[in-house]
Amino acid sequence: MEETIDLREYFAIIKKRFWIIALITVIAAVVSGAISFFVLKPVYEAKTTLIVNTEKNEDTQMITGDQFNVTQKLAITYGEIIKSRAVLDDVIKNLKLDDKYEDLVNNVTVS
Fold first, then answer.
1. Which terminus of the chain, N or C, has less C-beta within 10 A?
2. How far is residue 54 CA from its own chain's centroid?
3. Which of 73, 68, 69, 67 is nearest to 51 (CA)?
4. How many CA atoms does the CB half-sphere of 2 hold within 13 Å?
């Protein structure tokens, strides 16, 4: 006695029970999202600052307004890098300071 099942029967079963499949999928997504946001602690986190420079043109000595704006923004970015945790933590470690990052960042000014 051999039984054969047609693919149409499988699709009919899936179509009939689609709401259960969708409900289980939504519940699993909500539960896993809640666990990952509220229960699990992050294992790894990274932050970076990307600096893009333009190529210098040695032929002309003129500074355009665009170059001036880029230079100003680059100076602000360098100031943020100087006050970043990565730089100041190395300063504290290399100079063997007793200060914490929060104390040192309040005492550093960049102008």
1. N
2. 25
3. 73
4. 2
